[in-house]
Specification:
Elements lengths: L1 H10 L6 H10 E10 L3 E3 L2 H9 L11 E3 L6 H19 L1 E3 L5 E5 L3 H37 L16 E6 L8 H5 L1 H42 L13 H16 L5 H14 L4 H6 L1 H23 L3 H12 L4
Antiparallel strand pairs: 1-5, 1-6, 2-3, 4-5
Helix pairs in contact: 1-7, 2-7, 4-5, 7-8, 7-11, 9-11
Length: 326
């Protein structure tokens, strides 16, 4: 036991990320979001697979085939899928990554709004699933025609109720206090492990912010500097500017304040495009050039910043957590 405790303490010795990690630990809570989602594809049976292989003159064991149970392109199904996408985007937009699968960090100040938004999204999802269920018999009938002899009524439940759902919870990522009395050494080891995970969360957040920022800057630069086939400046959507503005707001709200270089690059870009609309950039060639040149320099700084980030180490550590090896 002493060896294990000593090992954990060694791994968690203070680092440059420690102050930011302690801020995260003091101001943010872990939130887990999970989905229940009906599968829409199923592998063919061994006999069906063998018959499919015959068409290609192949051995059945050399071919793996599946069938699509429902038309996921149907408007009612797409409505359900779109809600899942919006829930996932919202959750990631108000939180920071954490090195535990399915868990992210939400500010204490945002927890009430987060829970209310999730409840509203669940109600929206339930309504969309009910609408899909009303069209379900028609979708099954269409599948029967489309699949022919591959259709199997046993693949289709009587109703979609309960097959699409979203749940959220707030798991503890700290060791239980009762452990301090039962086994003080183990409790301290677990506290050290939690500290190390929050330090890793800081690094994950820095990397995620830098990568998102780099993508947004690169995209806007490409639109500002690019030319179409006739030599005219490329047309770009308002979202190219709005996406960067939204990033600034999220960065200010969730920034872990641990990387002065990243903060300076974000501030520089914000000065360049602050108060500038997409239409301003379309109308003003001089403004367009100045913003493009300035963002180009920001992009160069981000390239160097990302090159210094130990991405592989972070990803490997996160994967280890997923398999219980952390």
């Amino acid at each position: 036991m002493t060896t294990m405790i000593d090992d954990v303490r060694t791994q968690a010795r203070p680092s440059a990320a420690a102050p930011a990690a302690e801020r995260l630990r003091a101001t943010m809570a872990a939130a887990r979001v999970s989905f229940t989602w009906m599968g829409t594809r199923k592998a063919l049976s061994a006999d069906q697979n063998a018959r499919a292989a015959e068409a290609f003159g192949a051995e059945g064991r050399s071919l793996s085939a599946g069938k699509k149970l429902l038309d996921t392109g149907h408007e009612a199904f797409r409505a359900v899928t779109a809600i899942r996408g919006r829930i996932d985007a919202y959750w990631k937009g108000v939180s920071l990554p954490f090195p535990e699968p399915g868990v992210r960090l939400v500010r204490h100040a945002d927890l009430e709004d987060f829970a209310a938004a999730m409840a509203a999204s669940r109600a929206e999802l339930d309504a969309a699933v009910a609408a899909l269920d009303r069209r379900y018999a028609g979708l099954v009938a269409a599948a029967r025609l489309r699949l022919g002899t591959l259709f199997d009524a046993a693949d289709y439940p009587a109703s979609l109720a309960g097959l699409f759902a979203v749940e959220w919870s707030f798991p503890s990522v700290e060791p239980p206090e009762y452990l301090a009395g039962l086994c003080p050494g183990l409790y301290e080891a677990e506290r050290a492990r939690a500290s190390a995970r929050f330090e890793e969360a800081v690094q994950l957040a820095e990397r995620a912010f830098a990568e998102e920022f780099a993508r947004l800057v690169e995209h806007l630069c490409e639109r500002l500097e690019g030319r179409d086939g006739s030599g005219q400046p490329k047309v770009f959507r308002d979202s190219a500017v709005e996406g960067l503005s939204a990033f600034f707001g999220r960065f200010r709200a969730l920034n872990v304040s641990s990387d002065a270089q990243l903060e300076e690059l974000v501030a520089r870009a914000q000065r360049l495009v602050g108060g500038v609309s997409a239409q301003d950039l379309r109308d003003g060639d001089g403004l367009r050039r100045r913003v493009a040149e300035g963002l180009g320099r920001v992009g160069q700084g981000l390239d160097g910043l990302l090159a210094d980030r130990p991405r592989r180490r972070i990803v490997r550590s996160t994967a280890s957590s997923a398999t219980g090896e952390a």
